[in-house]
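Task: fold both queries, return tokens.
Query 1:
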Amino acid sequence: MREEESIKHYTDAECQTLFASLFPAGFAGKDVLNEMAPEGWPDSTLHFIFHPTLEQLHWERVQLHHNLQNWPWISKDRLDEPEPTLEETRADYQDSPIDTTREVRELVAMCLWDVFSNENDVVDPDGRLVHIGSWRGAAGFLAEQLNRETAEREYDYMHFYMGSFWVSERADLTPVYEMIFRRLKDRLLDWRYRLPRMHLIEFPSDRPDGRRSYELEKMRAELEQAHREAMDDLKHKPVPAIVIAYNNIYGVFPRGWPPWEFNERDD
């Protein structure tokens, strides 16, 4: 059991009150924009999150193709699918005009999901967790925040589920995380890092099934192996932008980083 399961959580009302104080002018307020893109949104590299270059988009498609090819549960008939070509990407590529307000608020919401969800924790001085929901629940909470801000039913959880996962390679998100952590620190809130991991959801059954049990154990072993490999890979990669941003604001690395040392200390 995670130690935080015995700790009290903020209520939904308290979470909404906190977010109103964190962003009094909204997720795309001038104060937010001035902090994370003082040079102006069109001149900030952050705008590439929504306006990737042709080369960036093609690189992402190639990486996705390779990742799918290595996915343990991929269908065998998809293993021979060819890698996307630059010509195919160019045929689909179409940029759109910059919409500063929309892009800023959506990027902030993505990065808030990274901070408050993704198995990470925000905690107050009394040890209470600012828990805005599970992966899906947190995305829904942020969508509702923006729906109230825009007075429209424009967003749902799918807009922010997985946070910045799909676009984080397009630009350095450190300034966005710094903006968020600066606000958390001003309110005496702290943050704890955890390496995300996939969990197996098992539906109960009152019927014994040897093959089902075997498949479940096999999947558990595969997920555990994938987590160990992700941990090993992390040792050889640059420190994540979200951890760097925390260090820049708080002056220390967050509890939980690096995860391999943290696990060894606390197990």
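Query 1 returned. Query 2:
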Amino acid sequence: MKLFSNKSLIILLILVSGYGYIVSCTRDNDMIVPIQLTQPFVSTRGTDILLPGNMTAGNTNEWKVDKTHSSCLWETPYVGAAGLLTGRFNQFGMHDVTNAKAISYVTAGQPLLDSSWAFYENEPAKSYFNGYVQINTSNTGEPGRDAGCNVAGMGTVAIVAGTQNLAYPNLAKIKTTEVKFDPASNGYIVTLDLTYQGKLTAPLTKSIIGKLTYVKKQRVQFGTAAAYDVFGLKLSFQFNCRDFGIVSTSIADKIDIECNMNFNNK
């Protein structure tokens, strides 16, 4: 009887010890902190300040739009098919086109100075941009479409040789109302007013949200030419063409716009 009691006591102690070990392991596992696989974004913005000034040739403190290497692109789904309709505007610029300036200009070059902008890399509240395109210069690479259905479908007018037509309804323009940091990238969130007439009887202004990317300033040199600095700004946004009376059944409601503006200080 005494031997049985000793064995029972030993078994009981083993069971209690095992339970304690299991409980202690469970508590250790509860205290393990999960590994954070996605780290929070940390910005790496600099302090560049880039301004046009008077756009004087040879003044390295004044930045000029390099229109030859810039572009204003558009794309939209071709309704009823899988492919995209794409194109670019041949004539565009960065100027605040007021109503008084919304006229035709007899010139082959830029009708207005590309000077209505400022960029502060680390102070976006100080940054602003104005831009415009001439709708009838839409270029899809298909001349029949560019001079035909595009003109009629977008309510614009045919190109007149030797003029730059910044009058409505051939004018579409943007003007920023707010530029702020994008919390998820080194870019910026931009609120802008898009003014366009389309096939309406008068221009309409709509507030649009876009995204701005800064391609950092760097020095370049080609061949034996003097070195100079360059930087880029990429603005992308989307608008609903039906808001502006565009009823073409060839294009979708939403038009995506991408402006790739390159600058130099030559």
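Both queries returned. Flag for query 2: The first strand starts at residue 49 and ends at 50.
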